[in-house]
Amino acid sequence: MFPIINQYGDVLVKNMRMESEKGKFINLKDIFGAYSMDVITATSFGVNIDSLNNPQDPFVEKVKKLLRFDFFDPLLFSITIFPFLTPIYEAMFSKDVTNFLKKAINRMKESRPQEKQQHRVDFLQLMINSQNSKDVESHKSKQGRYLIY
User: Fold this and answer.
1) What is its EC number (predicted)?
2) Dist CA 113 CA 11 (whole Å)
3) Rounded-to-integer distance, Cα 40 and Cα 4, Å
4) Cα separation, 59 vs 104, whole angstroms
């Protein structure tokens, strides 16, 4: 995954250079927010998005909408104490956003076998590999061993 992060680091430097050449103040929140979004989407899903230069991308809009909630919300704290309130927590997120992300992930999972590039290093591919693993018993025994340590 480091090459992916390195690639987006180069994009970050290029974007900062372009902004500084304009002679205006640089809004670091926007630039680093876009960098973070690009790195997270690339390392998690293998999706290449230039969120700084393409803020209208549906993936960018939906993820921003998903992350727009208050971390200090009493409901969020209550869920950590009372896990049975999870259905209420799920209602906090917009259904169109969660449905969009579910559909996008399912499309990515379905398209992976048809792609020419077989060796991907993102979390989605790691989960697919684990799901398709023939050695399930070995995973269970390792998991049991890790719980003992």
Assistant:
1) 1.14.14.-
2) 29
3) 10
4) 9
Contacts of 33 (CB under 8 A, 6+ apart): 51
The tens digit of pLDDT for each residue in 64-76 reads 877 776 667 776 6
CB 48 within 8 A of CB 42: yes
Distance CA 89, CA 57 (A): 27
What tokens appear for 102 in the block?
Answer: 């579910």
Contact (CB, 8 A) for 128 and 44: no
Q: Report, in angstroms and rounded to the nearest whole number, the Rg of the chain calculated over CA atoms.
A: 19
- Residues counted in the chain: 149
The two tokens of residue 12 are 């970050």
Helices (H) and strands (E) in the chain, counts: 8, 0
pTM, entire model: 0.64
For the record, the structure tokens of 62 come out as 């939906």
Give the separation between CA 123 and CA 107, rounded to whole angstroms: 15
pLDDT digit string, tens, across residues 7-19: 999 999 998 898 8
